[in-house]
Amino acid sequence: MENISLSTLAQAAVYKRETQERSDRLMNYFLPAFFIGGLLFAPVYGTWLIALTVGSCNLLAYYFTKAILPASNLYQYILSLVLGVFMAQYIYQMHGLFEMHFFAFIGSAI
Q: What pTM did the predictor assign?
């Protein structure tokens, strides 16, 4: 078994924490942008109710979980779910427009 020093483990923990904090800061920009994207798609087919309710529930689910359990990884799993639901919302709002499926790649990249 390898002998990993405590300083190496501490450096890894610091790196993980910094990466997670950076990701959290970026999501504070991306999630409202996804919500606004839903509002921009809403007038095309009149899907305002979907845009407002699903988008609001997505934001509520992520930020509520993050506020209640900040030390847990659960809010990151919720974030993945929220990005997937935003993709499904866009596909529904645009009545299955093929290009909306590319939001799966965008969501997985961020």
A: 0.87
Q: How far apart are CA 52 and CA 35, in angstroms?
A: 8
Count other Cβ atoms within 10 Å, centred on residue 89.
25
Q: Are 51 and 42 in contact (CB under 8 A)?
A: yes
Residue-wise pLDDT tens digits, 9-30: 889 889 999 999 999 999 999 9
Q: How far, CA to CA in Å, does 93 sit from each of 34, 43, 66, 98?
A: 13, 9, 27, 12
CA contacts within 13 A on the Cβ side of 75: 19
Q: How far is the C-alpha of 41 from the C-alpha of 69, rounded, in Å?
A: 32
Evaluate whether 42 touches 54 at the Cβ level (below 8 Å). Answer: no
User: Domain coordinates of the chain in residue numbers?
Assistant: 27-109
In the three-class reduction of DSSP (H, G, I as helix; E, B as strand; rest coil), residue 1 is classed as: coil
Give the amino acid at 80: S
Quickly tell me which residue has 């610091």 as its tokens: 14
* pLDDT score for 62: 97
